[in-house]
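Lab notebook: predicted structure, single chain.

Context: the supervisor wants predicted structures on file for every construct in the current expression panel, including those that have not yet been purified. This is the next one on the list. No modifications to the sequence; it matches the entry in the shared construct table.
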Amino acid sequence: MPSEPTKQSALQSLRNWGENSVPPTLLATLITAQHARPFQPLPMLFPPILLFSSYLNLSDYKTDAAGITAAWSGLYALLAIRRSQRIKNKFTARGAVRGASIALCVVNIAGCGLAYTFGKREKEEKKV
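Prediction complete. Output recorded below exactly as produced.
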């Protein structure tokens, strides 16, 4: 009898998203695209931290990386939502990138927060 592939629940899919190293890298790319030209120093503090989070994830610190990504994605979402934008500017390329980055922040907060909350620290548990 061939085994059928099991379907993942929405929560498991979100947790897998949070344990992946691509979302913080993608968010860092979108932030850089928006704020590098003209250079805005405050938003440009976020990409190095998000890239460091991606590095931690690749170094098998998935739970800690998920926590950093969730926290800094939330901070950037708050910063981005505070800026007002006219209705006609929302339908430009820059507006689309801004909308995509805010949407990615929301998904990162949900997925990475879930991965951080229910994650296990295998390296620390093995030392004990």
